Amino acid sequence: MTRVAIASVRGGVDAAFAEAVELAGCGPLLTPGARVVIKPNWNACGVPGSTSLAVVEAACRWARDQGAGEVVVGEGPVPVGRQRVAAFLEEMGALPRLEAVGARFANFDEGEHVLFRGERDLPEEIGIARAALEADLLINIPILKVHSCCLASLCVKNLKGCLRPQDKMAFHRVGLLPAIVGLNRIVRPHVNVIDAVDGMEGGHNRGEIVHLGLLIAGRDPVATDAVGCAQMGIPPADVPLLRLAAHAGLGEHRLDRLEILGEPLRPRRFELVHERMRRLYPDLEIHDEGACSACNAALMDGLYIAGGGRRVACVAMGKLARPPAGALVLGKCLRDYWPSHPHVPGCPPSGHAVARALCAEGDDDERR
């Protein structure tokens, strides 16, 4: 049976990391002198919902203890600019702390990418970080959290950070979930560890922190995600991305086919993104027929940022939507409605721009 391990950090993060990966059978994968690449979720630099530096350090120390020749921590942040990436790393104190454990940081966006063309379910051309593809051992370390588009954002989703910046948005346009599965056919992490020390519910960047004090590890990213979802009280069979990945032969998502070692699985029900939206905005009318996942995510971000300042009662997005009079229109798919409706341009619009429009006091000029 496929093994997945759960370890408690009661005795320290380093001990938990070593225990989890050993129980999951990952130890023999690292040979002396290997080039190890660690992929955390530091995608949206500067916001909550990121892999903790302590877990990344533990991975670096474990790799060094196993005889790794080189250890690189790599990430391809969303297009936030070099200054914001540098500020995020400085705020964490990441660079000196990584150096202290014998590792270095590599911004995948600034490195070399290998081009792939004509792959099933993917944009016509994508670029994937060469560092991730050519690693002797790729360690995938997402944080445990829910997601507005994927229901849960864990190991399978985390590989999106290996793409060129322009490809991340292209994934939304061709169909986010099948594209992520297509990416996982190409990039195959050897070790997967979910940082469940502090998870996030209600949102994937601006949700609420939930302390669990756990690490979840496995060689199979789909199986590891299945246990992660179950830990959040989400049946893995209810997660479309996991079903697609399992159907594609990328791993096992059925809990009864898994051997769960270490700590027992004790689910703690996480609030999902759409549940939080319904709770916070029960009166908001949304027309999203034909909307891609990027516009949906922009609206979620905008609602989080707007908080209690929202004054808009109706939002429309997606090429098949028919916005009622006065509805706030999001994105260029509905550009034919821009002359007659308050709108936020962009493909997708930014969350901050959506928030400003949601809070506008009836002055259409502020939203055009």
Total strand count, please?
Answer: 16
> What integer is the average pLDDT?
92
Morphology call: globular
What's the level 1 CATH class of the largest domain? Alpha Beta
What composes the largest sheet? 10 strands, mixed
Integer tally of domains: 2
CATH architecture of the largest domain: 3-Layer(aba) Sandwich
| CATH fold title of the largest domain | Rossmann fold
CATH superfamily membership of the largest domain, which one? Answer: LarA, N-terminal domain
> What is the SS-derived class?
alpha/beta
Task: Describe this structure as you would to a colleague.
- The termini are far apart.
- This protein has two domains: 2-262, 3-Layer(aba) Sandwich (Rossmann fold); 281-367.
- Strand 10 (191-201) and strand 11 form a beta hairpin.
- By secondary structure, the chain is an alpha/beta fold.
- The strands form three sheets. Strands 1, 2, 3, 4, 7, 8, 9, 10, 11 and 12 form a ten-stranded mixed sheet that branches. The chain has a four-stranded parallel sheet with strand order 13-14-15-16, with helices on one face.
- Mean pLDDT is 92; it is low at 362-368.
- 33% of the residues lie in helices and 23% in strands.
- Helix 1 packs across helix 2 (53-65), helix 8 (176-186) packs across helix 10 and helix 12 packs across helix 13.
- The longest helix is centred in the last third of the chain and has 14 residues, at 293-306.
